[in-house]
Amino acid sequence: MEIEDNFGNLVEVEMGKEVYEGILLPSPKVGTFLLKLENGYDIGFNKKDVLKLRVLKKVTEGKKESALRPSGDKLDVAMIITGGTIAARLNPQKGGVDWLTSPDMLFRFYPEFFKNVNVKKVEVPFMKASEDMDYKDWQKIAKVTADLLNDPSINGIIITHGTDFLHYTSAALSFFLGNVNKPVVLTYSQRSVDRGSSDANLNLQASALAAISEIAEVMLVGHATTDDDFCYAMPGTKVRKLHTSRRDAFKVVNAEPYARIFSDKIQSLSHYHIRNKNKVEADTKFEEKVALVQVYPGQDPNVLDYYLNEGYKGIVLELSGLGHAPTSRARKGWTKKLAEVQKKGLIVCAAPQTIYGRLDPFVYTNGRELLETGMIYLEDMLPETAYVKLGWVLGHKEWASSKDKIKEKMLENFAGEINKRLIE
Amino acid sequence: MVNYDEIGFKAGLEIHQQLDTHKLFCECPSVLRTDEPARIIKRRLHVVAGESGEIDEAAKFQAGGGKDYLYQAYDTTCLVEIDEEPPHEINKEALKVALEIALLMNCKIFPLSQIMRKTIVNGSVTSGFQRTVTIARDGFIETAEGKVGIDSIYLEEDSARPMGKNDQEVVYRLDRLGIPLVEISTRPDLKSPSHVKEAALKIGDILRSTKVRRGIGTIRQDLNVSIKGSNRVEIKGFQDPRIMEKCLELEVERQRSFTEKGKKNPAEVRNALPDGETEFLRPMPGAARMYPETDLPLLEISRDFINEVKKNLPKLKSEIEEELKNHGLSDEMVKMILKSGKLEDYKELYEVYGNPLLISKLLITFPKELARKNGKSVERVEKVISKDTLAFMLESVYREKIQEKDVKVVLEKVFSGVPVKEAVKLDKKDFADVEEKIMNLMKDKPGLSPNAYMGLIMREFKGSITGEEAMGIIRKFLK
User: Which pLDDT score is estimated for B432?
Assistant: First the structure.
């Protein structure tokens, strides 16, 4: 088609009596196209209204010289780019998205990121929005990360990632990588990179400092408040996205940040492991047949049959309050069904749907009744972290063979996912 | 005298007018604040390459170079203004007003247009860009020297108000950010400084017939000016439109000082000073600073919507004056209705109840009188006596529950705190009865002096009527 072939070109379009001149662009609306007028504005037209199209000037793509120069007095880090807003840039000339997959491209948008570090290696295992990821993607990232952690020339690793499911990935890497020897920093942006106000600017600067710091943990680094002031380094298993759009969407839940990071300095805030020379091995076993289900008023307990019949091995229930689901006193009680599915082999764990706080089944009669069914209460573990951990634990055949072993592993503190002392 | 025709004088106006609606991309009210902010938000901006990969000259110049921007937020601003929530759908009312303006200026409407981001990195917009959309083109207005072409009409969001700065920080107030602005740019058809003035007044007249904000700072006029052989210069920041003519004369002189030496003045944006001189502000912005607002769908303006707006196009001030005079209102009253901004209320009540004289008194005369009598401001009176109250009273007159002459008494009762439904049930001591009683009393004792009647009346009605009112009634019957 004539129109599609000329995207990016300067054209003259004749439509009835009207003649327009501009750069031809694709439109998000079916059956239409856009023209960028001389004043920079884009206006739309129906394709079928075009009588004549004349190309005035063909687009030429200029090669841009890289302004990026490695420097000897900066420390080397590695980057893993996985997609998301932080690495996406709209290409209005071609339509769709350009991925920023090289340090050169990143440099054009975030020159300040390179103030303190050299990006020595870049790995791009895939480019995806985080809502399109699953455990197989976590496994890929973990393997790439482990290799880089064992590379003595790399001081730390920065992983850029979409925000939606970022906290699942951070939990997964925490379990898969175990005790890391260097900083593993996950970061993101909530505002697209094209705008002068993008939060990625500070997030990346803080991530660069985190990556060359002494903090040997899997951490998420991002805005601490709405101000472009400082970021928090947040524990990978104790962090959750709690806002759809704000810069400080990620909050540490039931724990404290490791550090406060400004664009030029780090202040430690709580305990973390120190950089070391241990070898890291990725343990990425994962049982896919696990589920995360929120319990709501009046919910039919027979939904559990679905999971059982579909061959699920385990399920994390997000329970109300201190750890409750409708009991035998409810119109649709869950007690009997819970006991039944667990007897048939389904592992049922409990996490708080309140997000904040710890479960305690002993306080109320209802809790004690549900506890009797054999559910595993996961203390203050975040439901998303619990889901990832259950998949990881059940992925280990040597643990999954006995319910007692599973319970022991689910309550073992591998990566700070359980906090015995809540102070807020 | 300069012969402007001979030197190839070309000027175009660029007028920015705030609309009197809520904000363009969120539901916040368009109110400017004078009190202390609820909180301060601290941000930084960095310059990024545009869609073509180039950094805009103007953007590069503006960039703060590592400055902190402090934004004053209020309970009348939300997450959208602080760039923490995507823009909401475009304000339909603002779009309607913009279409009215476009149609009144005989423009062609774009049925499909993309809302754009115009890169601005001086901190005056929290996002780093201003949202703007072109909605119409190719219109004209009539002037004494012929038609002046309207090139384009844009609908865009206003920026935050600068409140102060030092080497490290710039402070902005977020109240103005997001207020809808209509930008009108004329063709370079203006032939002389006086022609520019005439066109500016004409455009102002059209704007004021629609729902626009009034008062200082709600309209901003910029000028584009060039002569034969010169580069176009944009002049911004006229504090007083009366300075425009002088400023143009001086700018022409300045450009001529280049062309006479065979040189060209730089294409740039200049700032108007109070004495009519100008100073360099920044380089001329290019198309490189424009890219699409991907958080919003394309703006579609349907035939139906245009037709609906066309059907209800507002009238110009001169036409409205004529119409009100035809209702039987005095010139003075017509002026007061227009000046007080009560035209919409008047029209609404007139359509339902007719009775233009009583409506104009209810809207203009009585509130003033009540305010004076009680030592309160008219605003305070109008706060208590709402449009609904007035409508209820007109309804009561229409249904003959009260008489027209009682309306003022009822208003007074409402202002003193009596619910309007109670207030219209007049008791014996109320004004209407008072008038009747005074009349009877005067009939019973004919031939007394006004002061004698006064004494009798004041004894009879003890405090439920003022001396002034009593005297008014006495005089009425003694005539």
Answer: 62
Closest CA–CA distance from residue A39 to any residue of chain B (Å): 6
In a domain, A423, yes or no: no
Residues A184/A106, Cβ–Cβ less than 8 Å: no
DSSP code per residue over B403-450: -GGGHHHHHHHHHTT--HHHHTS--TTSHHHHHHHHHHHHHHSTT--H
Residue A156 falls inside a structural domain: yes
**Measured distance CA(A257)–CA(A101) in Å, rounded:** 29
According to DSSP, residue A164 is labeled T
Residue A172: predicted pLDDT: 98
CATH code at position A24: 2.30.30.520
Which residue stretches of chain A have pLDDT < 70? 1, 61-70, 92-96
Give the total number of structural domains in chain A: 3
Q: Which residue of A has its CA nearest to B118?
A: A40
Report helix, strand or coil for B347. helix
**Dihedral angle at the C-alpha atoms of B450, B451, B452, B453, nearest 10 degrees?**
50
The answer to whether B43 contacts chain A (CB < 8 Å) is yes
**Which amino acid makes up residue A163?**
T
Tell me, yes or no, whether A214 and A296 share the same domain: no
Mean of the per-residue pLDDT values for chain A?
93
Give a yes or no: residue A157 inside a domain.
Answer: yes
A328 with A225, same domain: the answer is no
Find the CATH number of the domain harbouring A169.
3.40.50.1170
State the best of B47, B88, B112 to mutate against chain A, taking most chain A CBs within 10 Å. Answer: B112
pLDDT for the residue numbered B431: 61
Nearest to A246 among B44, B45, B84 (CB): B84
**A370 shares its domain with A315:** yes
Touching check for B121 and chain A: CB below 8 Å? yes
- Do B41 and A32 lie within an 8 Å CB cutoff? no
**Residue A377: predicted pLDDT:** 98
At residue A17, the pLDDT reads 84
Q: Tokens representing A374?
A: 């054999």
pLDDT at B11: 92
Q: What is the pLDDT of residue B59?
A: 58
Whether A34 and B118 lie within 8 Å, measured CB to CB = no
pTM equals: 0.81
Segments of chain B scoring below 50 in pLDDT: 428
- Shared domain check, A86 and A228: yes
A295 shares a domain with A240:
no
- Which residue among A197, A201, A244 sits closest to B83, beta carbon to beta carbon? A197
3-state helix/strand/coil string of B288-313: HHEEECCCCCCEECCHHHHHHHHHCC
Answer with the one of A268, A300, A328 that is the final residue of a domain: A268
Residues A343 and A216 reside in one and the same domain: no
Report pLDDT digits (tens) over B260-278: 998 999 999 999 998 889 9
Tell me how close the Cα of B276 comes to any Cα of chain A, in angstroms: 29
Distance of CA B439 to the CA centre of its chain: 49
pLDDT digit string, tens, across residues A45-102: 999 999 999 999 887 765 555 566 667 789 999 999 999 999 888 776 665 677 888 8
CA angle B303, B307, B309 (to 5 degrees): 120
Shortest distance, CA B80 to any CA of chain A (angstroms): 10
Q: How many A×B Cβ pairs under 8 Å?
A: 122
User: Do B48 and A29 make contact, defined as CB atoms within 8 angstroms?
Assistant: no
Same domain as A79, residue A53: no
In this complex, is the C-beta atom of B1 within 8 Å of any C-beta atom belonging to chain A?
Answer: no
CATH code of the domain in which A380 resides: 3.40.50.40
Q: Tell me which residue range forms the domain holding A103.
A: 75-268
Q: Which of B79, B86, B298 sits opposite A44 (nearest CB)?
A: B298
Residue A284 maps to a domain: no
> Cβ B134–A41 below 8 Å, yes or no?
yes
What pLDDT score does A65 carry?
53
Query: Three-state SS for B220?
Result: strand
pLDDT at residue number A8: 86
Q: Which of A268, A303, A335 is the last residue of a domain?
A: A268
pLDDT at B288: 65
Whether residues A308 and A258 fall in one domain: no
